[in-house]
Amino acid sequence: MQSSKDTVQISRKEYEEFLYLKEELAQLKKLIFGKKNERFVPSDTAQSQLDFGLESNEIEPEAEQQTISYTKEKKAKKKPIRMVLPAHLPREEEVLEPEDKQDNAEKLGEAIT
Questions:
Q1: Cα 106 from Cα 113, distance rounded (Å)
Q2: What percent of the chain has pLDDT over 70?
Q3: InterPro entries, from UniProt (predicted)?
Q4: Are 105 and 111 in contact (CB under 8 A)?
């Protein structure tokens, strides 16, 4: 008879723990996935007027101001330089004429006299 009471107590403890964990899980899910509202809560005016022994009439000494100046030299950007082709390479000049050449068209790049 004792063993059946023990099993009932154990199962009851497990059931209570299960309910507790289930409720905790629901709360955590609500925290993570639930609706969130951001709203402004005005601060308490009495709280902002606490006196910490400071006189409001005291003028804080102004900090010394230092002016620091420097000059920075801007480096000139290097422009890419085209390398000269070696002399031993053959050079070929090819002129491409348009297929539908018009009679009044002028050739660009040549001196017209």
A1: 12
A2: 80
A3: Transposase_TnpC_homeodom
A4: no
